[in-house]
Every structure is written in structure tokens, then in C-alpha cells.
Amino acid sequence: MAEVIWTEPALQQLDAIAEYIALDNAAAARDLVQDVFNKIERLESFPASGRIPPELPDSVYREVVVPPCRIFYRQEAQQVFVLFVMREERQLRSFMLENR
């Protein structure tokens, strides 16, 4: 089994998305966070189960989609590092370039 490790930026990004949703619907925000953690927990047993992001076909990164979120991670040996969470509608490449 792999150990899932959330990075601080990924947790902050998920929190920001949940806070925005909570402005209109607190229950939906709680459900989203629970769904994300449930899906990511599966990576303990199946670390390669996420898809390769379509924008990064030759990447070592994988993603899990829990609408409206895309959760990016990388597996290293028996560890899964959750690195980045973003809303689905954002374009990955332009977002990455803006933050460099």
C-alpha cells in the first residue's frame, strides 16, 4: 500500500475552492471535500489508477477528477504526493505559466 501525502499548497487550493462553493451552499462544499478525500484515499491501494492529464501526455503526473476539481499527484515508490488542485474549467498550461 502507498502512503498518500497532501502538500500544503494542494490543501490550500482545495480549501479555497470549498470556501467559494460554501458562499452559496455549505453542504455542497462539505460534500465536495469529502468526495475528494474519498477518491484520493483509493490511491493508497491503486496509486496508478488516476489518468494521465491530456495536456501532459508524457508526464509523470496523474490526476483524479472530482467535479469541479482536478487533483494532480505523483507517485514515488510507495508514496503518492498530492501536489495541486484546480477547478476543471481552468486551462492547465496557461495556469502553470502564470505562476512561474
TrEMBL record:
Pfam families listed in its UniProt record: ParE_toxin
Stretch forming the signal peptide: none
Keyword Signal in annotation: no
Record's keyword terms, sorted: Toxin-antitoxin system
Oxidoreductase as UniProt keyword: no
Family per record: Belongs to the RelE toxin family.
Designated name of the protein: Plasmid stabilization system protein
